[in-house]
Amino acid sequence: MLDIIKTRRSIRKFEDREVEKDKLKAILQGALTAPSSRGKRPWNLIAVTEKEQFNQLSQCREVGSSFLADASACIVIVGDPTVTDVWIEDASIIATILLLEAHGQGLGACWCQVRNRETKDGNSSSDFVKSVLGIPAQYSVECIIGMGYPGEEKQPYDEDELPYDKIRYGRW
Ligand SMILES: Cc1cc2nc3c(=O)[nH]c(=O)nc-3n(C[C@H](O)[C@H](O)[C@H](O)COP(=O)(O)O)c2cc1C
């Protein structure tokens, strides 16, 4: 696990190769174990595997979402703010787990922020994704994890260059 954490990087270029259904299913299944506040699981995951839908989702932002067009699978993380006031934290945790699982399965993946972002026309990115995927009004879209077989190689962070000054012991 530590090795998976240490070697993960955001991958935005992908091979033109399908992610096996079983692999995707295993990743989704693993994500369902994510911790959530009071165990409320205020999230839903939509696994998207159609190229046409990737093209649509890649337009949810003016910049920052274009890499989704070349993905082989997108997992849309949909939160329900009516369930808990900490749905953003819960959605972010499951998104992070998905990133790590994808990497652990030999895939590359990257987070595309949707909540609090806008399309190039100035509309809400969350509303845009909701209309593309038919998501009911009460929900909000946190992010989309685009994944696929890596089409770029990124070196893990150099352990000697990590920001150790961010860590304090005992008190500030
Ligand atoms: C909350 C969050 C939002 C992000 N949003 C985007 C995004 O919209 N588009 C994108 O290409 N990358 C996005 N990223 C990926 C970051 O750019 C990336 O994690 C950062 O540059 C560090 O690189 P690394 O993941 O390779 O360590 C996001 C990451 C996080 C955690």
Automatic annotation (TrEMBL):
Annotated ranges, domain Nitroreductase: 5-53, 55-149
GO molecular function, one term: oxidoreductase activity
Key words, A-Z: Oxidoreductase
CDD domains: nitroreductase
Position of the signal peptide: none
Assigned protein family: Belongs to the nitroreductase family.
Protein name, per record: Nitroreductase
